[in-house]
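Below is a filled-in request sheet from our internal design queue. Each sheet records the structural input a requester submitted and the sequence that came back. We keep these sheets so that new team members can see what a complete request looks like end to end.

REQUESTER: design group, bay 2
PRIORITY: normal
MODE: inverse folding
CHAIN LENGTH: 1377
BACKBONE (tokenized):
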């Protein structure tokens, strides 16, 4: 792979490499901090490469699909050069990428050459093939060294923890030079060191740190390469736009960029009551009138009637005529609907009668023929044939009509039903119960007589056939006598049933009738052969059924039919509503078609100027006026957008600055945090920027001169706004500014430490001083001070005005250079007068108030570039200095006469004249030539960074914000308390001039050095806090180091250095010990997750026969290391008993054959499911969906700062929360531990009672924790001190904020740390007494009852690192279960 890289992230161009975890910087309350986060985009690419469409978003990951893509994951860490070499020899990378990776600074954050491709520290997955993945820990430089900075060591431990969570088998790559720095017997070395040292204490001494005279010494400072978006804003070629500038601020390193925002139109809504037509036309005049097409027609008519009455007929007549025509058409549609419904009724009635005639044709034919009076419902007008088209229309229009007809044709009259039953009863008796008699004529006649008597039941008036039959039989039985055998004897002779059989017959009859339709019954009735019944009786029987049929026909069928026939009167409401809605639609269409024409005719009246759009018009009651709502277009002119950018420091830089006054920090501009930048817009035709300053706590001060109003507007507020768009300062939504009325040519100065603003009116000679207090209140400190009295009653021509910082004094500098200081306490000028350079481009005071600095650009003769009056830097220097004072004359920016041709031409030199305030009035104490980074005097500003003073400047062409560290010493002796070092002068060094390539190792030349005697290969050279390994010592005056000293780039100056011994590299193996000291060894909540780790050490040796020897040495070392770990921590450590270790040759190490070469048990494939369990933070929505069937338990940890909350939670749940003796947890952090049955949600809360949080915030965190947790571990100190009593009282106060007790479910477990066994009963008694008192005072409102229904547990915890400490975690586990 060759060519120039346009990207700087090598992970994007290495085939098959995916970043899993990224080590990055983020803003914290105490500066920028290191954070390990999931690399979302890279992991998304990995998932979708494994299984397409498996990763759609963080909350939508198809884990089930990904679980089918199993990879065997093997960990890899160690020497970064060997990791790169491994990738090179397996053809994964080329030579060019290898060179980038092997550069010692390839992953060093904040100290890289811009544009150089790097691989950031973190965890990466290299997909070797479809079955194997190599999980690589790419390290920070020097993180495995014994004396590595604490933050680097912490990051290494955390990343190694993730490496071992993701893989069971790790490979450590170690070079031969690494082995030279490996101490095999730590115990012996400790014993040796004990003989040489006085113990573990650190020797300190009180030093006279500033015994020398007053001095002002510059050193190379920070260099911030600005992001590309800021570079575009500071484009120096944009001549039409003001240049960026650095903000005047004592405490912050901030700057302002300016860019143009094109002119654009802006529409604002207005409402106005208009009382007259003339007023209406007056406000519209000069505008382009527009009528909102969404306006209601009634509003439009009101508008026309009020403002365009003369055009009313022309405008509205076509519309009114069209609407009137629609109303006429509506009435016609209603009439048409009436006719249609009437016709539908006739057709439906015809359908009913035809169906009746069709179904009961026998009876209907008789009725039609005889036309009996009893059948008063006639169907003469009904046609038998019906139009098929009409039928289809009716069925479609009335979908239920067919069912209604069928339901109406069911004969439901009681007489009819009972007659049917009786008929079936009689016929069943005759058919089933008649006993065949003899052929004797008498017997036959008797049988016929009996049957005839049965048929006579059908003509009896008794309808209930059961009662009728019973009555009939009883009567026949009573009538028998001796002279006559009676009819009963005939019945008994021919019928075999008795009364008890009637029920059975009735049941049979009802079953039969349920299966027979009325039409089938009538058909059977007409075809039935009545045995031995004369025609008269037969006709009587038929007539009886016909009468019952006609009764149903007239009294039931006909009324039901009439109900089913649609009537217009019944549908009037629905029809009218429907037709009215249709008419409204037609009217709207008419209005929509006519509306634009009306609007266009009105709009023609006014068609020139900004847009004036009327949205609504309403009558004003009893006034005759018109209330209109309108939008007025206002042309917003071209504006300037000012953006304030503030830098932030790494937390480790802050600590280093407090310890080392010359530490070079690496501030950064974090564009992702709104609190680090703020934008506002101004109209350059209206406003001029007069002053921008930053006060403490990010409070800003902006002074704008209003060109039109001729006044000064002061804006002051905290930089806390997070609006997406720049703020328009003069808009009403923004706090109103403070208005001042000085003259236009006034001078403004700011004293941020005192919160003071000074305004001097140059023409009047008047000074006003204001103060901004902590509440942003603006009030006058001193007003109307006439300074003429001190200048012979003549108004002086003041050119510069500035505060003596941190004092209540203001310095006035006249155009002739004469300067005086005014004291605001005494309201008097100090007696001394100073003379500053007349040609000074700027004069300012340093942030500590000790010096006044005048910046001057002067021409210096080419023959004599130095002046005898210029005082260069002295030779005195401390052990950490970078640029000696004498070096200034030899600096590359100072003209060297020996390199110039002879002549007398002048060369421009930028200089700083230094005046100490303690000797105000004396000549300049010192004049220095400014280095080349000060390319112009326009951008210079002083500021403080912790205890350092910086002179900040811009290189707008290169896009660099940079500084010089200024060390100011005073004549009085100062003392400092510092660590004692045995040091001697080693000479000075500087980079060899031909060094140009930032990626190669650097060669240094020495001055007064003895490299051959003082330095050995492998030792470390330290310059300005940067440490580099000595690779080769050529001579006493020349050596070579690994990588580049950033502080030397562009600086041709001699620098002091110190030597540190060769670094121990036991960290490659000790990483496991450090990890297990910080995090649990065995899993408490799920022992099944305990895994045996295996370490394979790949050694890059010249002689591979030594491999076996080294394997034995490493095995002994690891055994001793783990024994010491178990002894010192007393942790449960069953997992490390089976720790596997072996060695192999790096030269034989091949990724493709990795499984065969390792010769270890198959580590098994880890699915994405497994990965999710181990790096699941930040992905919880998708994780919870995937494990949604498992029980969720929430356990949280709270308490004071630095009491071991994170440590306990890690060892209980197995999480990886970071922890340290300093405050490191901010806010609330969440992680998961997933077992076969449960999902444990662990919440790590920041410490309470911190300086960064208010009591209200502590109370909120406590309530939030209580609401969402099942178990709360509240860690407390050994006793109930005042702070904890206050905290428990806040618990009680919080109980009153939320009254819904249903939301609380937690159990509170108070962990009292480090309790000796003999004190446990006493400490429990002390705590319980405190709670008992609180409960008695609060009664039913006590916080324990209201907030912790799960109960309260007081747990005196064993001493730290005692074996019982870890055993007690099992009790907490039981409590959680």
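RETURNED SEQUENCE:
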């Amino acid at each position: 792979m060759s060519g120039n890289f346009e990207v700087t992230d090598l992970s994007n161009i290495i085939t098959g490499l995916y970043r899993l975890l990224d080590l990055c910087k983020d803003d914290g309350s105490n500066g920028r901090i290191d954070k390990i986060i999931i690399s979302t985009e890279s992991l998304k690419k990995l998932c979708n490469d494994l299984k397409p469409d498996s990763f759609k978003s963080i909350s939508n990951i198809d884990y089930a699909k990904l679980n089918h893509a199993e990879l065997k994951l093997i960990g890899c860490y160690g020497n970064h050069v060997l990791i790169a070499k491994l990738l090179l020899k397996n053809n994964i990378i080329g030579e060019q990428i290898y060179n980038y990776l092997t550069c010692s600074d390839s992953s060093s954050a904040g100290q890289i050459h811009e544009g150089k491709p790097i691989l950031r520290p973190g965890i990466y997955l290299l997909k070797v093939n479809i079955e194997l993945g190599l999980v690589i820990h790419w390290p920070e430089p020097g993180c495995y060294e014994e004396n590595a900075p604490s933050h680097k060591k912490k990051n290494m431990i955390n990343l190694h923890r993730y490496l071992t969570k993701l893989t069971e088998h790790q490979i450590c790559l170690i070079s031969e030079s690494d082995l030279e720095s490996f101490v095999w017997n730590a115990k012996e070395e400790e014993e040796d060191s004990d003989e040489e040292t006085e113990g573990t204490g650190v020797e300190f001494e009180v030093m006279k740190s500033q015994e020398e005279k007053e001095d002002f010494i510059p050193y190379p400072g920070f260099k911030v390469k600005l992001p590309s978006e800021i570079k575009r804003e500071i484009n120096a070629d944009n001549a039409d736009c003001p240049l960026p500038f650095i903000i005047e601020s004592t405490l912050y390193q901030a700057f302002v960029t300016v860019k143009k925002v094109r002119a654009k139109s802006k529409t604002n809504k207005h409402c106005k009551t208009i009382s007259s037509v003339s007023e209406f036309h007056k406000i519209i005049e000069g505008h382009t009138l527009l009528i909102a097409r969404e306006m209601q027609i009634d509003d439009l008519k009101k508008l026309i009637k009020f403002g365009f009455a003369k055009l009313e007929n022309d405008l509205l007549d076509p519309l009114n005529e069209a609407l009137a025509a629609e109303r006429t058409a509506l009435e016609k549609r209603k009439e048409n609907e009436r006719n249609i419904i009437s016709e539908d009724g006739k057709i439906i009635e015809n359908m009913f009668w035809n169906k009746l005639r069709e179904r009961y044709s026998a009876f209907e034919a008789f009725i039609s023929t005889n036309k009996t009076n009893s059948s008063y419902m006639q169907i003469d007008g009904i046609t038998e044939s019906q139009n098929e088209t009409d039928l289809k229309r009716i069925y479609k229009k009335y979908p239920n009509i067919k069912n209604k007809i069928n339901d109406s044709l069911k004969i439901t009259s009681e007489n009819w039903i009972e007659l049917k039953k009786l008929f079936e009863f009689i016929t069943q008796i005759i058919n089933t119960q008649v006993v065949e008699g003899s052929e004797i004529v008498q017997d036959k006649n008797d049988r016929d007589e009996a049957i005839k008597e049965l048929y006579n039941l059908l003509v009896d008036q008794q309808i209930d056939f059961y009662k009728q039959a019973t009555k009939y039989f009883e009567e026949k039985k009573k009538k028998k006598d001796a002279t006559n055998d009676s009819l009963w004897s005939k019945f008994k002779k021919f019928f075999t049933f008795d009364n008890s059989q009637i029920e059975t017959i009735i049941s049979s009859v009802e079953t039969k009738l349920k299966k027979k339709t009325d039409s089938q019954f009538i058909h059977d009735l007409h075809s039935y052969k009545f045995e031995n019944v004369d025609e008269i009786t037969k006709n009587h029987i038929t007539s009886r059924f016909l009468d019952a049929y006609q009764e149903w026909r007239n009294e039931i069928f006909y009324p039901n039919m009439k109900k089913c026939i649609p009537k217009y009167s019944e549908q009037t409401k629905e029809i009218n509503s429907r037709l009215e809605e249709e008419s409204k639609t037609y009217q709207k269409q008419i209005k929509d078609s006519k509306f634009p024409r009306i609007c266009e005719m009105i709009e023609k009246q006014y068609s020139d100027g900004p847009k004036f759009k009327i949205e609504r018009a309403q009558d004003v009651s009893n006034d005759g006026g018109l209330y209109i709502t309108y939008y007025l277009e206002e042309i917003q002119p071209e504006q300037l957008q000012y953006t304030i950018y503030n830098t932030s420091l790494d937390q480790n830089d802050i600590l280093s600055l407090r310890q080392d006054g010359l530490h070079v920090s690496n501030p950064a501009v974090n564009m992702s945090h709104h609190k680090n930048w703020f934008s506002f817009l101004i109209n350059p035709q209206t406003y001029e920027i007069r002053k921008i300053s930053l006060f403490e706590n990010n409070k800003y001060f902006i002074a704008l001169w209003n060109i039109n109003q001729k006044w000064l507007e002061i804006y002051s507020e905290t930089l806390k706004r997070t609006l997406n768009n720049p703020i328009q300062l003069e808009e009403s939504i923004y706090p109103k500014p403070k208005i001042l009325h000085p003259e236009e040519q006034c001078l403004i100065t700011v004293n941020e430490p005192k919160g003071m603003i000074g305004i001097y009116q140059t023409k009047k000679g008047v000074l006003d001083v204001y103060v901004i207090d902590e509440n942003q209140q603006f009030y006058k400190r001193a007003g109307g001070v006439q300074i003429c009295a001190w200048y012979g009653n003549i108004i002086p021509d003041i050119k510069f005005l500035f505060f003596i910082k941190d004092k209540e004094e203001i310095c006035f500098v006249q155009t002739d250079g004469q300067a005086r200081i005014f004291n605001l306490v005494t309201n008097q000028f100090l007696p001394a007068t100073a003379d500053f350079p007349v040609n000074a481009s700027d004069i300012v005071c340093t942030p500590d108030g000790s010096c006044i600095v005048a910046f001057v650009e002067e021409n210096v003769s080419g023959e004599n570039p130095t002046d005898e009056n210029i005082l260069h830097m002295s030779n005195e220097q401390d052990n950490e200095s970078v640029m000696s004072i004498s070096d200034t004359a030899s600096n590359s920016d100072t003209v060297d006469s020996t390199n110039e041709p002879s002549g007398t031409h002048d060369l421009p030199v930028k200089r700083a004249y230094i005046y100490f305030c303690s000797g105000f009035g004396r000549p300049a104490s010192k004049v220095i030539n400014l280095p080349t980074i000060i390319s112009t005097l326009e951008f210079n500003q002083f500021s403080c960074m912790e205890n350092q003073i910086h002179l900040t400047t811009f290189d707008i062409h290169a896009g660099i914000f940079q500084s010089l560290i200024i060390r100011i010493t005073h004549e009085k002796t100062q003392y400092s308390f510092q660590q004692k070092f045995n040091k001697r002068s080693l000479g000075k060094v500087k980079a060899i001039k031909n060094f140009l390539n930032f990626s190669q190792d650097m060669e240094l030349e020495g001055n007064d050095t003895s490299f051959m005697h003082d330095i050995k290969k492998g030792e470390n050279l330290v310059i300005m806090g940067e440490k580099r390994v000595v690779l080769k010592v050529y001579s006493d005056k020349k050596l070579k180091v690994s990588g580049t000293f950033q502080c030397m780039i562009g600086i041709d100056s001699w620098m002091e250095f110190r030597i540190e011994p060769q670094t121990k590299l036991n960290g490659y193996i000790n990483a496991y010990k450090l990890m297990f000291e910080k995090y649990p060894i065995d899993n408490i909540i799920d022992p099944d997750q305990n895994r045996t780790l295996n370490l394979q050490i790949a050694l890059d040796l010249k002689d591979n026969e030594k491999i076996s020897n080294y394997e034995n040495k490493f095995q002994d070392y690891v055994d001793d290391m783990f024994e010491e770990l178990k002894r010192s921590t007393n942790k449960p450590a069953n997992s490390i008993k089976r720790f596997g270790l072996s060695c192999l040759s790096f030269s034989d190490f091949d990724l493709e054959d990795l499984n065969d070469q390792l010769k270890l048990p198959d580590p098994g494939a880890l699915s994405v499911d497994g990965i999710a369990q181990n790096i699941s933070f930040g992905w919880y929505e998708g994780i919870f969906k995937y494990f949604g069937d498992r029980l969720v338990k929430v356990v949280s940890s709270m308490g004071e700062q630095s009491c071991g909350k994170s440590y306990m939670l890690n060892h209980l749940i197995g999480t990886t929360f970071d922890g340290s003796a300093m405050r490191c947890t901010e806010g609330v952090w969440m992680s998961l531990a997933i077992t076969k049955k449960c999902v444990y949600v662990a919440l790590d809360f920041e410490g309470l009672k911190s300086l960064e949080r208010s009591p209200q915030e502590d109370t909120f965190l406590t309530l939030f924790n209580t609401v969402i947790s099942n178990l709360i571990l509240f860690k407390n100190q050994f006793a109930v001190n005042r702070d904890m009593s206050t905290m428990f009282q806040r618990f009680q106060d919080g109980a009153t904020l939320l009254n819904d007790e249903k939301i609380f479910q937690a159990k509170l477990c108070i962990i009292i740390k480090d309790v000796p066994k003999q004190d446990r009963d006493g400490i429990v008694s002390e705590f319980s007494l405190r709670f008992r008192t609180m409960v008695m005072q609060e009664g039913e409102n006590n916080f324990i009852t209201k907030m912790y229904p799960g109960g309260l547990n007081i747990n005196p915890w064993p001493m730290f690192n005692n074996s019982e400490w870890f055993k007690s975690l099992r009790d907490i586990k039981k409590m959680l279960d």
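SHEET NOTES:
- The CA atoms of residues 322 and 590 lie 7 Å apart.
- DSSP finds 36 helices and 55 strands in the chain.
FILED BY: M.R.
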